[in-house]
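Minutes, project check-in
Item: structure for the 334-residue chain
Input as provided by the requester:
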Amino acid sequence: MDARAAYRHCEEITWSQARNFAYGIRLLPPAKRQALAAVYAFARRIDDIGDGDLPPPAKLAALADARASVTALGAERDLPGGNGSPPPGNGGPPGEGAAGDLVLVALADAAHRFDIPLAAFGELIEGCEADVRGTTYRTFDDLLHYCRCVAGSIGRLSLGVFGTADVATAAPLADALGVALQLTNILRDIREDYLGGRIYLPAEDFERFGCSLENGALQPAAPEHGPGQHGPGDGANGDRLAALVGFEAERAGTWYAKGLTLIPLLDWRSAASAGAMAGIYHRLLERIAATPRAVLERRMSLSPREKALVAARSLVVALRPHGAGAAAGKGAAR
């Protein structure tokens, strides 16, 4: 199957569904842009299984199939002689069952051209399996494992496309940046996740702040809800929930501080891409930290204009002579 058609399919998925990541992915040169779109498209498939309408046993079976598919791709890539680049446009070995699956064809080609750690998809699948099973988190360390599965994995997969001269240093930083983004997602979605039956923040933190999402704290406000009336997050419990959100936002900020030190280890185009993706979420976190009660009432987001401005700023910063990207690694493409 023509890898070019497969990449076009993955880019269509990315541009239509990656509401935040697409701004950064577009800043990459064509080969890296295509490869990261393939990574995103397969990760999106995994997420869609976890968030879909199938009954839990069927979701777990579908996730097992996804795990088998990506494991087969990795096994074929790692065969003796399997690390060479496939002929342009013809696609690499797609793995058993991949023929006809445009996303897997593109991912196979990308995995032959770049040092993409395909095993990290297994961690993403593990995190989605936890969602399907309704796992909750007692401590922050418990939540941290989940964040590293579902988002740290994406950071490391992306690093495989970006490339760096110092993988040993860069990989933990990519993982930390993924954790920061996931903590931001959790805060942004605290209301809709709870109304959908999911609580991600650690139980120990609710106890520390003496608050709860139970007993109608985040129930949808009545249509007539207005000034002076009770609604989501009102009262003493709401004050404590807002304090909890502020605490978690500060915690996420420390993960950004660590993760963003990845940027100088990348070439300037990759630095601009990573900076745009992280910058959009960081800006959102700053907004949550400034008005923590707002996430108890609605889902917060940046406008398309704000996202575009963040992406443009990341490009300008990356172009500075001694800015991000100055310590770029030599190409990951093989």
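Outcome recorded: The radius of gyration is 21 Å.
No further action items on this chain.
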